[in-house]
Amino acid sequence: MKLNKFAKLGAVAVLSAVFLAACGSKSTSSSTKQVLNWDENAELPTIDLSKATDRVSFDTLNNTNEGLYRLGKDSKIEPGIATKTTVSSDGLKYTFTLRKNAKWSNGDKVTAKDFVYSWQRTVKPSTGSQYAYLFSGIQNADDIMDGKKSPSTLGIKAEGNYKLVVTLDKKLPYFKLLMGFPSFYPQSQKAVEKYGSKYGTASKYMVYNGPYELTKWTGTNLSWTLKKNNDYWDKKNVKLSAINYKVNKSNTTAYNLYQSGKLDMTYLNAEQAKQMSNSKELVTRRGASTFYLEYNQTKKEFQNKKIRQAISLVIDRKQYVNKVLGDGSTVAKGLVASGLSKHNGKDFADEAVVKDATATDTAKAKKLWNEGLKELGVKELSFSILSDDTDSGNKTTPFLQSQIEESLPGAKVSVTNVPFKTRLDRSEKGNFDVVVSAWGADFADPISFLDLFTSDNSYNNGNWKNTEYDKLIEASKTTDSGNTTKRWNDLVQAEKILMQDQGISPIYQQAQATLVKSKVKGVIYNSSGANYNFKDAYIK
Amino acid sequence: MRKYLLKRVFYMILTLFLVATITFFLMKLMPGTPYSNQQKMTAQQIQIMNEQYGLNKPMWMQYLIYLGGMLHGDLGVSFQFSNQPVSYLIASRIGASAQLGIQAMIFGVVLGIIIGSIAAVHRNTWIDTLCTVLSIIGKSVPNFVLAVLLQFYIALKLGWFPIADWGNFSYTVLPTIALGVGPLAETARFIRTGMVDVLNSDYIELAKAKGLSRYGIVYHHALRNSLIPLVTLIGPYTVALMTGSMVIENIFSIPGIGEQFVKSILTNDYPTIMGVTMLFSAGLVAIILITDIIYGMIDPRIRLSGSGD
Amino acid sequence: MEEKIKLSPESFEALPKAAELDNEKIAAPSLTFVQDAWRRLKMNKGALISLFVIILMMVVAFGSTPFINHDSLVKSAPQYANLPAKIPGVPINGLNGKLKVSGEWVDEYKQNNVPNNKYFVLGTDYLGHSLAQRIIYGTKISLIVALVATFFDLTLGVAYGIISGWRGGRVDNVMQRIIEVISSVPSLVIVVLMLIVLKPGMTSIIAAIAISSWTTMARMIRAETLQLKSQEYVLAARTLGESPWKIAWKHLVPNLSSIIIIQTMYTIPTAIFFEAFLSFIGIGISAPQTSLGVLLNDGQKNFQFLPYQMWYPAIVLCVLMIAFNLLGDGLRDAFDPKTRR
Q: Where does the UniProt annotation place the signal sequence (chain A) (predicted)?
């Protein structure tokens, strides 16, 4: 019968394709010799450190380049290019002595001029660096960013090739930490000028001075490799020969790759983390980011403190982090993330904790809610909660909606999840009732958080205003900036005011659950600034 | 014919121009800015950056500049990938998507024609029902579900193919299947329907009477005539598949354009959105023209309009 | 040749008057087009069962409105999150509250201290919502999306295609260019734009579908119309001076019915999947509402651990699709004049 001939032909074709393909797949297997296969969940947009804005770029730069310091475990300052640092008695002048054996991957020496050039380039408005604000406090930086002064007036000078002098406008207690952040790393003027507009757009259009060199990155592809940099001054302590990055946007895919041994690390989504909670390979990376509710205080109902408190008190945060998120995120103690910064052995978040700020008390909430409604003269209140369309954003809003509607009589909540950029735009324009915002610290100091809610800060989307708070923050930057304890107390006090008033309602401190193969050792993760430091990593 | 072609090419350009215009102005309505950290930038910085990207000029001027650039292949610079020309971004990403799209289309259409023909010849028997149900299931399962299942069972459990990533042919097999099942099901159903119609017509009766074999009839008469509605379908479908499937690329970690396109929409990367849209639209109008020409060739009854009036 | 049959008038006999008339009579009862179609549809068992399934699903989905509404959807119970199915009196693993965790069946209800009398027939999702309830609601939303898309296909798509194909020439040319432009602007861009004008959710999705879903139908119909235009019976109708509207309705639509029905059968999943795609990238329907697409997408993420969260909505969607398609086949056979034998 003719059908058979037809069918056979098709079957043979399909089978042979399957067979051939199956043979092909066996040839690729990952070797285990000091090579790390790392999961990444977003693409690498740039390695121009003046233009970097995202986690992946900063992570990559942190490993391919190096600044005055490297940040070790728990953001501890470790030597980088600087071998010696002297600080003037008023704390406004830093003199760094640079090592002479630091080299760029094109063979040039890393000199003080590279730092001067790099900083000036970042601060210059025409570069369009979105992270230039970190330079605020360095002499003339603000004026240069505003275009009032020329970049050459920036408070950084090279004295010879190996001495660098930095002058500050005001004392920056966290200045040394900043030096470990990629925005403050040096750049080779020769390279920037040679590659022109292509600088930093592919691995070959860049020079490196860190433990690793970036290779195989075409500028738009989804995989790249960090290869050991043989020109690195401390190369004898770098044990890995390569780190292969692979972008997997789907956690399911990354998990499958991990299971089959193609990856040594994978990010987990909440559900996966919950299921793997007993695994020995589970590593939870607690981030220094806090998720909080901002209330639009240009609206009458949210100017009412009782309404804000009621909403906050009704949220069962413990249930949320354990049952809904389940990825290791923890209940926020306040705005400033736990484990970010310590003074006299005490964590800031513990010092500044305010009773009831993030607690659950439905009875009290109902009482406050009813009082609040009475003060407003209304019987019910409908409002909308805005968030972005990320995995966690999509989980947060329905949860809040159900918690509020179930417990607060007369509350009508609608939820709006929009793309991240749209959410930012709406937040900025005040086009929201309640918005779920998040902030991650750029450096390990409470001011990185607390600065957000001064009256005139552009990140204060809800327009919460408190003169005492503003005064305390100002004092921490000016009169008390020299006295660590006083400054610390100012900041603790400020946070307490913010919490007592529920200017914002913190919900949770984010954590990223990952699985890491137990053979991988020595990977350093810091919750603020650039996250991963692979300098000391190795495979056992 | 030449006159007809010239006329159509003119229309193609007109269509592209309209698409460019509409997309451009729609883009200007989209909320937000391309800067991810705007609130920390000074007014001066924002102004300078707007100047660099040409965002400070009046809209009509931006529009003219954009059209001018497009004429000589300059699609601007991506916002998301700093300093990366959009044309480079597209060029480096389109390869994987196009390969996958073509493979999926070939897989789907060839298998679909075979299955559809078998079903039509054996219509109203269990073979027909089986083919129908299979193709319906193929069409009913969203491709992201199918992709997850293939990845889990075929790649992870059985280890026949790589789980994800992009490389030699073996990497393309699972995504091709996941992407090709849609066209397969659709082709099979169209072929079956078309062929049942044709098999009932008089000239087939004649062919039967002449003693042609069943599959001879299918091949010589029925297939050709039932391909007509299919041609309309396949063209745009191919373009859609070639310009990338966000879902499949996402699940199989393929560096394709579809996934990048969605990302550029969500991050307000206007030049990339425009670039990909124009590419898609150019592909679409070209393929529509080609189908219209093929039409005239496989079905002599259709006169190419335009040559007449 | 040799022998001539001799016929004389006597060889013929006149029939009685009544019989003469009867001979011309059509034996079968006269049926209208719709009656005939219904008669033939009834003969197709698969189509009848499918019709029944669809009606049942619609009744359940839309009938649930008084019971499953905003208030019941918004209630969450995170303490019951991610429980597998538990049906009273069914001791089958997977349906008795047990879930396979790293190769072993574990009673999740016991582990989570769920009261003994608490049953979730299809399990729960990450917020402890009953999955059965969500699937019913999701089916409703997906059906609405499908119906809206079908509506635009059948009205706008068919009419546009027929006019374009029938008129030909300049009109056709302009209309085809419009279609090209519409199908070139990515629907995702339209949806994102809708988000600023409207709120994310049903309205934006429906608006986006209304703008772009019907173009494929219009193109298919136009192609067929071009072909049918030159058929003898259409020419005949034209020559007899039939009005174009009547020709379109009496001749074109019945002959196009197979294409229309098949294409509609593809519009339905395409619309449902479009909605699912939006939820895949996170801008679909907004909570507490849900759709089959949202459920599938949520389930897909946790497939390795909680396979039931993907399987149940997938099964419902498949059954729905198969029913739609078999019914479509039946309708096609019933309506298409060419298959009337």
A: 1-21
Enumerate the H helices of chain C as residue ranges.
Answer: 17-22, 33-43, 45-63, 70-74, 108-111, 131-152, 158-167, 169-184, 187-197, 202-212, 215-229, 232-239, 244-247, 253-280, 292-301, 308-335
Domain that holds residue A335: 287-511
* CA–CA dist A149, A167 (Å, integer): 16
Environment class of A157 (CB within 10 Å of its CB; exposed 0-12, middle 13-18, buried 19+) = middle
Give CA angle at A77 (A47, A488), nearest 5°.
Answer: 110
> Which residues, listed in sequence order, are joined to residue A386 by a DSSP beta bridge?
A416, A435
- Residue C249 burial (CB count, 10 A): 12
> Of A161, A176, A162, whose CA–CA distance to A70 is shortest?
A176
Q: Give the residue extent of every domain in chain B.
A: 1-309
The three-class DSSP label of residue B296 is: helix
Q: What mean pLDDT comes out for the span A410-438?
A: 85
What are the Cα distances from residue B35, in Å, to A183, B38, B176?
17, 5, 36
Cβ atoms of C220 and B232 closer than 8 Å: yes
Looking at the DSSP bridge assignments, the partners of residue A439 are A290
Pick among A394, A399, A406, A414 to test the C interface (most C CBs inside 10 A): A394
Residue C273 domain-assigned? yes
Given this structure, which CATH class describes domain B1-309?
mainly alpha
Surface-to-core class of residue B1, CB atoms within 10 Å of its CB (0-12 exposed, 13-18 middle, 19+ buried): exposed
Q: Do strands A381-388 and A411-418 pair parallel, antiparallel, or not at all (unpaired)?
A: parallel
| Nearest chain B Cα distance for residue C220, angstroms | 6
Q: In whole angstroms, what is the distance from residue A147 CA to residue A506 CA?
A: 37
Token pair of A134, please?
């970190």
Question: φ, ψ for residue A381 (rounded to 5)?
Answer: -140, 120
pTM for the model stands at 0.82
Phi first, then psi: what are they for A125, rounded to 5°?
A: -60, -35
Could you report the per-residue pLDDT of A270-313, keeping only the tens digit for each? 888 888 888 888 888 888 889 999 999 998 889 999 999 999 99
User: Within this chain, do residues C151 and C284 fall inside the same structural domain, yes or no?
Assistant: yes
Do both C112 and C160 map to the same domain? no
Q: Is the pLDDT of residue A215 over 90?
A: yes
DSSP B141: S
Tell me if A113 sits within 8 A of A164, measured CB to CB.
no
Same domain, A315 and A203: no
Considering only CA atoms, give the Rg of chain C. Answer: 28
The distance of A272 to chain B (nearest Cα, Å) reads 15
Residues of A in contact with C82 (CB under 8 A): 271, 274
Is C287 in contact with A394 (Cβ distance < 8 A)? Answer: yes
Q: Contact, B109 vs B135, CB < 8 A? A: no
Q: Which of the two residues, B250 and B2, has the higher pLDDT score?
A: B250
Q: Residue C83: closest CA among chain A residues belongs to which residue? A: A323
Instruction: Tell me the C-alpha distance between A227 and A64, whole Å.
Output: 9
Give the total number of structural domains in chain C.
2
ipTM of the complex: 0.81
Question: Which residue of C lies nearest to B145 if distances are taken between CA atoms?
Answer: C300
Q: Report the run of H or E that residue A95 belongs to, with start and end.
A: strand A93-98
Q: CB of A282 within 8 A of CB of A513? A: yes
Alpha-carbon gap, residue C284 to C145, rounded angstroms? 12
Residue A193: CB partners within 8 Å, gap ≥ 6? none
Contact C291, C141 (CB under 8 A): yes
Reported as type and span, the H/E element at residue B242 is helix B223-242
In degrees rounded to 5, what are phi and psi of residue A50? -75, -20
Cross-chain Cβ contact C193/B30 below 8 Å: yes
pLDDT tens sequence across C193-247:
776 666 667 777 888 888 878 888 888 888 888 878 877 888 888 888 888 788 8
Q: Which two tokens stand for residue B213?
A: 């074999």
Q: Do C254 and C314 belong together in one domain?
A: yes
- Interface A–B counts its CB contacts (< 8 A) at 180
Phi, psi (deg, nearest 5) at residue C101? -115, 120
Phi/psi for A433 (5° steps) reads: -100, -60
